[in-house]
Amino acid sequence: NAGVMQNPRHLVRRRGQEARLRCSPMKGHSHVYWYRQLPEEGLKFMVYLQKENIIDESGMPKERFSAEFPKEGPSILRIQQVVRGDSAAYFCASSPPTGNTYEQYFGPGTRLTVT
Amino acid sequence: SQQGEEDPQALSIQEGENATMNCSYKTSINNLQWYRQNSGRGLVHLILIRSNEREKHSGRLRVTLDTSKKSSSLLITASRAADTASYFCATDARNTDKLIFGTGTRLQVFP
User: Fold this and answer.
1) CA distance readout (Å), A17 to A14, A39, A88, A96, B68
2) Which residue among A43, A80, A89, B58 is the one 20 to 30 A from A34 at the CA level?
3) Do A101 and B97 touch (CB under 8 A)?
4) According to the model, what pLDDT value does residue A100 have?
């Protein structure tokens, strides 16, 4: 029973390029959450998605960031025209379709470095 | 901001000693959880305490929750070098689906 999978684990992008981060939730989970962790800080909520729906994007920057969770395939966090301030660890979590959404299981994270 | 704060920011102790970390939060909660994060790695869930619970144990971990003070503490007894990590509390506020993380305590246990 594989856990939450994220890829790539490390991503280096130059300023202005696009970054695509992927998250495959645990088997049977249909809720996905993305969090960002800046160096020496705690995780900050970005977005909560269910299949084909964005439920809560209150933590997403207004520009350049988008997220999707299609009917088939992984959830994607997309950052367009990256800037140095986007350098961070991005964590995905998933939770089961019923019950409590606090039961979030975290992936290993993608560490984005913008040069 | 709903983000909690943890105290101390950093803690260094010798193996065998106990380590206590505190977390404060701002809003009413359903549950409070503690996570560990080794340097450069993902989060490991340690323990969850519900808002109607006051204390919970798991192995060498003891968590308390005081909802009147909006605070929680994590006690690691008989610490080991392998306990060296950052520890975060996370709350799920009522009527929301997201976890709100504290700023973390960096624990270093010297052998």
Assistant:
1) 6, 21, 15, 34, 48
2) B58
3) yes
4) 63
